[in-house]
Design goal:
about 20% strand, 6 strands, Nuclear Transport Factor 2, Chain: A, alpha+beta, about 200 residues, 6-stranded antiparallel beta sheet
């Protein structure tokens, strides 16, 4: 395929919409009450401000900047390669990460404005387990829909990075992983094929 990352267009659109929905849902934290004593919640509130501005401008570049600043890009990217991650050449990593970020940002910029948020609530203080720290939220859209969204954060220095998000009961990283693994498998099992496609 000349320009797409996966061969099944309908399946791609569904997955892209889910990724974009997560980006759009993250905008709600501006309205969510939080205690200053909760650094993870404060981190998400600031992330929301930046995403809101990106959604208002409709700029793919603005989304790219937020994802690079707030997302745990290497962890997300390597996980998304699944069984092929050890085959990614070290010299291709930065190019791959950049392409992946643009891939997500492109659809976030296109889809985020379609999800008008009414308000949101933080349901509980952050929770921790061996995978990281979780921030829970309830998102209310203007059309009356309500979504439970859980964010997985990884501590990094004195701050955090977003590792994953769960919406409608599903974590988003596995969708990206399935998408990328399928493309690599259908293109000779070489991750470089994905790297090239993401950077066209």
């Amino acid at each position: 395929m000349a320009t797409q990352v996966a061969p099944h267009q309908a399946s791609l659109r569904r997955r892209h919409s889910l990724i974009a929905l997560v980006s759009a849902l993250s905008l709600v934290f501006l309205a969510a009450p939080a205690r200053a004593a909760e650094p993870a919640v404060e981190f998400m509130k600031q992330t929301a401000r930046e995403l809101i501005e990106a959604a208002r401008t409709g700029s793919q570049q603005d989304f790219i900047e937020v994802i690079q600043k707030r997302g745990h890009v290497p962890a997300i990217g390597l996980y998304a390669l699944g069984n092929y991650k050890l085959q990614l050449q070290p010299s291709d990593r930065n190019t791959y990460y950049g392409g992946m970020v643009r891939f997500i940002a492109r659809y976030a910029a296109a889809e985020a404005p379609k999800y008008a948020v009414s308000h949101a609530e933080i349901q509980s203080p952050p929770a921790r387990d061996d995978k990281g720290l979780y921030v829970d939220s309830r998102v209310h859209l203007e059309n009356g829909s309500v979504y439970e969204v859980r964010w997985l954060l990884t501590p990094q220095g004195n701050s955090f990075r977003i590792r994953d998000a769960q919406v409608l009961g599903f974590w988003m990283s596995p969708f990206l992983k399935n998408l990328f693994e399928n493309y690599i498998g259908e293109n000779g099992g070489n991750p470089q094929a994905l790297v090239i496609a993401l950077n066209r």
